[in-house]
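Summary for the steering committee. One of the milestones for this cycle was to obtain a three-dimensional model of the protein with adenosine-5'-diphosphate bound, which we needed before selecting residues for the alanine scan. The sequence and ligand used are listed below.
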Amino acid sequence: MSITIKGLNKVYPGGRHALKDVDLEIPTGMFGLLGPNGAGKSTLMRILVALMEPTSGSVDICGYDLMKQRKEVRAILGYLPQDFRFFAKYKTYEFLDYAARLSGMNNTRLRKQAVDEMLENVGLFDVRERYAGKLSGGMKRRLGIAQALIHHPKVIIVDEPTTGLDPEERIRFRNLLSTVSENDTTIILSTHIVGDISSTCNKMALLNQGEVSFVGSPQDMLKHAEGKVWRIKITGDQLHEVDKKYPIIATIPSGTGWEVQVVADEIVGYEAEPFPPNLEHAYVYYMENKLNLWTND
Ligand code: ADP
C-alpha cells in the first residue's frame, strides 16, 4: 500500500472537528477523494503534505512515518494546492526552474533539461517565455501540475484539480494526470466534482463531515445506487411537491410538464420507472439517503 492512514483526527483551535477517525488505504494509481465543500478534504490534503499536524492518528507514506520523517516525505511528494499562485515577475520557464531548484535539483544543465521536458509534457513549451501571470486559467493549472511533478515525486496530491477550467482543459488535465499515474505513482485527486473521479480513478473514497462513508471503486459505488434512480413524469404543478419529497438530479421539460430523475429507495404516489444510475446519481444517493439512514440506525 502506498499510503496508510490510521485513526486520523483533526480538531481546529476553536473546536471544529474537521476529520473524525479517518482510516484509509491508498494504493498506487489514481485515487479520488470526493466530498462536498466543508467535508474536510483540504484538511486531509494539508496533513498529507506535512503542512499541518493532525490532532491524533498516524500516516505512513511509502514506508515513511509522516509525523517523524517529514523531510523524507516532502522529498517524495508533489502538491498542487487549490489556490496555487505564481510570482508575477517570473516567466513560465523561470518559474518552473525556480520550483526545480527548490526541490533540490542543483545541476544547472540537468535542471534545464528537466524543465524543457516538463514544459513539453504539459504543453507549455511554446509559451515558456510568457510571464506566468499572463497564462490562461488552464495553462496556469498545467504550470501548477508541472511544478508538482518536476522532481518526479512518488506521491502527487492535487486539491480541486479542475475548478475554473473549461471542459476541454478539464479533459486535458485529467488525461495528463492519467499518463503520470501509469508510472508507478500515486495521485490523490481531491474534488467535489463527480466527473473528475469517474473517468480517471480506479479507487475512491467519499468524505462527508470529516468521516469516510465509502471506499471502493467508482463501479462499486454505482452498484449501491442500482434500483434507486427513478424517472417520473409529472405536471408543472407537481414539481414543487416532488422536490420537497425526493432529491432531484435532473429536470427535463416534457410536453406540458416535466420528466425528473430522482434518487430514492422507492417512489410512492407517482408513476415511476427505473433509470440506470451514473456516478452523480450514486453520489447524491449516498449524501442524501444512505447517510441519513445510517444516522437513524
Ligand atoms: P473541504 O476541503 O472539503 O471543503 P476543509 O478541510 O477546508 O473542507 O474544511 C473542513 C471543516 O474545517 C470546515 O467546516 C471548515 O470550516 C473547517 N476549517 C477549515 N480550515 C480551518 C481552520 N484553519 N480553522 C478552523 N476551522 C477550519
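Key point for the committee: Residues 32 and 197 are 6 Å apart (CA to CA).
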